[in-house]
## 1
Amino acid sequence: MTTDLHRAALITETDALAELLREADPATTIPTCPGWTLADLTTHVGRAQRWAAAMITDRSTVELDTRAVPEGARPADPRAAARWLSEGARLVLAAVDSTGAHVEVWTTLGTPRPVGWWIRRLTHEAVAHHADALLALGRPVSIEPAVAADAISEWLDLLRVGLTRRAETVLPGGATLHLRATDQGLGSDGEWFIRPSGPSIAWEHASTKATVAVRARAATLLLVLLGRIRPDGPGVEIHGDPSTLIRWLERTPF
């Protein structure tokens, strides 16, 4: 995905979540985020966006205390809260534009990265939590294939770093995992081959025989990988050793 597509998706997904907040009861429970309500979910997304915008604006190379985030409190009124949420995404983009895309700031990886990193990260955070809200409300989840495919790639990148820190083996005994999105037009961006690499993983866009292969639309694959839907649900094909996939999912929670 290009930066322009990330920017558009950040606005689209955040605004869609804000619209749900206008329509639905803020006390709606979110089963895919145990202990959270819709109010909690939208507070998490909106505060994270303002948190990132503040660090970008300050060109901070250290983590900002979330309690210091300007206007980080979600308004109690649902309509005001929806506006607050939508504004957060736009604050991020304005901060990037003002600061310059190549300036490096602190990231959740623990090391500074160019501020554009935050646009991609927050885009896929909004994608995941918009899906959480839709699932909680019993509504269908629709994610653009290119957005969902890029979210899978970003998730694998985050896992690669996180698993190195944890030194946890999620693909034991040389087991491998192949994912394939069945959407038209994704090309090689719709395939992922994942293998063990030291204490972590390595991955590439490749069609390679694996211990277990999973085929589904990109949006469905993403929701399976993030633990939002079961891997044995409709639209998912599993070939090979399913225990490898189950172990992967158990050890890579979002």
Note: The chain has two domains: 3-136, 145-251.
## 2
Amino acid sequence: MKMTKITKIFTALLFASTLVSANTIVTVNGTKITQKDVYEGLMNATKGGFNQVPAEKQAKLGQQFLQELIAKELIYGDAKKTGVMKSKKFKDEYKKVQENIKKQLAIKIWQENLHDSIKVSNKELKSYYDKNKEEFYEKESVHARHVLVKTKSEAEAVIKELKSFKGAELKAKFIEVAKSKSIGPSGPRGGDLNYFARGRMFPAFNDAAFSMRVGTMSKEPVQTQAGFHVIYIEDKKAKKILAFTEVKSFIEKRLKAEKFKSVMQSKMQKLEKKATIK
């Protein structure tokens, strides 16, 4: 595969979280490998963390995984041509795999049916909520943007450029500067860090962000291990107890899981009594 095509493929894959599709990126002896195949494989390989991997590493991992998929198709094709699938060894192993899959699938569906049969009443849900409200506190959080640069002088220049703006103009200009000057991964998003609670960011960044008012920008550069930051506070949320309706589904999953364990234990005891185990 030519390097230009690989580069094109993985430029697209960097945006896979929003553009995942069934578009074919390569065909191996008539078998299509799609962008979705590669992205889902990468998500499985990184346990769902592919989107958090740095962009340059995403491209490298993507290239490696695509080459693995191509290799598998090449080997599978040759295995069919050389008669591997007609051999006794293949047939015996395939039969074992089929039996194992059949057993695993039957157990999975049996457990799902048992789980689905368990009901949790609204009264139980509300009772749990009322007795455990301390579990459902939403911490104080801020919605911040930042411009990350390497040096203090660069950060001071950003502050100087923006300090004359106020209100909506400040926000708009801040986003523009973040897109053009920030070296952080949030730069293309206008420096948007979304909402975060205390303790999620570097201490110096955390302290500065939570001490600022909504609609304001930091007056001095904030230094962390990542570099120098200029911070803008877009919104704040005070600490609060989440409403019952907001956590109802979470409580239901928890109580259902607890009931499932109990029902499962009882069911297994009955099955063991009826079974012949020598």
Note: The first helix runs from residue 3 to 13.
